[in-house]
Amino acid sequence: MTSRRLPSWAELSPLLRPKPLELDPVKRRLARAVTIGDLRDIARRQVPRAVFDYVDGAAEEETSLRRTREAFQKVEFIPQVLRDVSSVDPSTKILGKPSALPLVFAPTGFTRMMNTEGEPAVARVAQNTGIPYALSTMGTTALEVLAEAAPQARRWFQLYLWKDRAASRDLIARARAAGYEALVLTVDTPIAGARQRDVRNGMTIPPALTLKTFFDGALHPAWWFNLLTTEPLSFASLNSWNGTVAELVATMFDPSVTFADLEWLRSEWNGPLVVKGIQSVEDAREVVERGADALVISNHGGRQLDRAPTPLEQLPAIVQAVGDRAEIYLDSGILSGADIIAAVALGATACLVGRAYLYGLMAGGQRGVQRSADILNKEIIRTMQLLGVKTIAELSPARLRLRD
Predict the structure, then answer these.
(1) How many CB atoms lie within 10 A of CB 49?
(2) Which residues are the active-site residues?
(3) Class at the top of the CATH hierarchy for domain 25-402
(4) Does the predicted model carry a pTM greater than 0.85?
(5) Most buried of the four, 28, 78, 80, 99, by CB within 10 Å?
């Protein structure tokens, strides 16, 4: 029979280690985030539903988004053991220049809607982390303002070709004058995808004060206070807009764009040119032959054509076809450092993430974006160590397989 006794204070006191009271609510909630999924959960509570769903959602039945995540879940790593991994180097080269990680912060639209710190906060974190950041045509910060906010960042500019070619030419000239390193042409958006969450939520840019959003605002007063008491949303590429995302795309974007327009863009821009939205070997070959320096295998995070190809599954064939002539990046569905390592092992030069840092932005502004970058950095390093590789160059398809 077990005998019982009361512990002495000397035995009990070492076990009692209460955490200091943290008065900063942002720091307090970000401290709870161990993964990007944790940041997602925090973000959901910080912003109105329509804003969260704009980031979190995808097109139609969201099949592409689910399949994209399932592809990463099928990855089975094959580690090497008895290697010295006391120190590993996750740095690489992107467009011929050093990058601290095989990571780029992807272009995202309407970023100040998620948090009023917006694109400058993201660019500063990219600058601090030592990775590139792409400002979207549909961003809510002007090219010149972003350049002033993060002068040392590797800034790329993402372009949608508009029906008004003169306006597109003007954007290209502004990007060149403001010192943007690369141009990223997105080619998978001839029209807007059917994002049903946005339709059901009545999502507009900027958010409208309807009866529904008024009651939702009562649950998120800090978000509404920040939106209404800071500078009105301005855009990287247009003065203002009042309407839905789909209406804006239908008004501004040109569904008649062809490969000839890519050649025109190549003649207009003498810096690195990245083409984003490639989903087939045939198109990969075509854009490289017409002057692309890099391409992004992407289904737009599942936000355009539902049931589109899954980028990770397309990656090996595209790398084999054009990987010796252009850098290959991958985006869509990336929520961990292990996802990034898997893509690089299969031949990607780097990965673009959007949702991952937007969850951080919604959760805590610039500090939240920094938290997302720190999480991905730690996961990349830990995965490399557990795989038994010291450098990014050592990653290869031999380090993983995709389970059925």
Answers:
(1) 18
(2) 300
(3) alpha beta
(4) yes
(5) 99
